[in-house]
Specification:
alpha/beta, Rossmann fold
Length: 148
């Protein structure tokens, strides 16, 4: 459930502090009001999405997901999200450094909504994050009340 009406909830799952900071900056400059939560690996994201001891479930409007992380990688988390009836409708954008065909194929087989390779150039990275915001949060119509 979205805790702040009118604010788009985004969960960023990435273990690279530099990429997290760049993503935060790019989203701040955007046209959409966003509340960004950050998890450093898949297990931390899962604890946010499925809190223990009856806590309120957090269901973001969009998940930005890196693949290669410690503890629980993005592939494992993606598989869990897409198998969970209360989470599977959340669009998941894989945003990773891997250009490996096996990673691209496995992400789509696990029902990622899109796969984007992080560019190494600062300006291009900013452009990519802004384009994600424009497309997924300003153009695409997301389901309302899809969360459990």
């Amino acid at each position: 459930m979205n805790p702040i009406p009118g604010i788009i909830e985004v969960l960023l799952v990435d273990d690279n502090p530099g990429d997290v900071r760049l993503t935060q900056e790019a989203l701040k400059e955007g046209r959409v009001a966003i509340n960004l939560r950050v998890a450093n690996h898949g297990q931390e994201a899962l604890e946010i999405l499925r809190p223990k001891s009856g806590g309120m479930r957090y269901v973001p409007d969009l998940i930005l997901l890196d693949l290669n992380m410690p503890v629980m990688d993005g592939r494992q988390l993606l598989q869990i999200i897409k198998a969970d009836e209360g989470l599977r409708c959340i669009p998941v954008v894989v945003l990773t450094t891997s250009e490996a065909e096996k990673d691209i194929l496995s992400a789509y087989e696990l029902h990622a909504n899109c796969y984007i390779v992080k560019p190494v150039e600062f300006e291009r990275f900013m452009e990519i994050v802004k384009s994600i915001e424009t497309f997924w949060l300003a153009i695409v119509k997301l389901p309302v009340g899809a969360q459990a």
